[in-house]
Amino acid sequence: MPKILIIEDDQDIAELQRDYLEADGFEVVIESNGQDGLARALNESFDLYVLDIMLPKQNGYDICRELRKEKDQPIVMISAKQEDVDKIRGLGLGADDYMVKPFSPSEMVARVKAHLSRFERLSSKGAAGSGKRMNMLVLGELTIDMDDRRIYVRQQEVILTTKEFDLLMFLVKHPNKVFSKEHLFEEIWGIDAFGDISTVTVHIRRLREKIEMDSSRPQYIETVWGAGYRLKA
Length: 233
What we know:
This protein is α/β, with parallel strands linked by helices.
């Protein structure tokens, strides 16, 4: 039974989300303020986090940032803020999805299922190859350990989220080929993904910040204006 943590200060909304999730077989825990929610998220095991942005004691952006330092499970952010800048900020901090209030609880359940399914498939693929050693992939000062899904830049490990790693690996496996944002969104987030393709731009930016010497003048991931992105090899 997948275990979901909801961090939401509006009791009615939190309980409605819980009721719909429990009806679909999920175990649900609710915390009503950011400080307690983050503490529980870090000290217990959950399969997915539903995180409001406007919270007492600690906001959702800060919680998302701290969670991503320790946890790789999906994060769905909830907010009444509709501006693109808020969505981009949430996605840029490592959230997997961003939903704007008001929304249908059944849609939220569908997104939760999609993200859990995607995460499970990716985790299974990683575990399936753990019994044998694959070659280390070296590209300039970038080293990729395929078995352990680890990235090293100039021999220093860099922590990537699941989707950041998968996005990088997709580009690495197709060097010098240009892919549109739409194509990358479908490949990495899957046909069951929700959201918009702006998340691709956000994840490319985060990747560059982590693996490039100068993210404004990228050595590995190039932008092909009007077409998309490619990995230069």
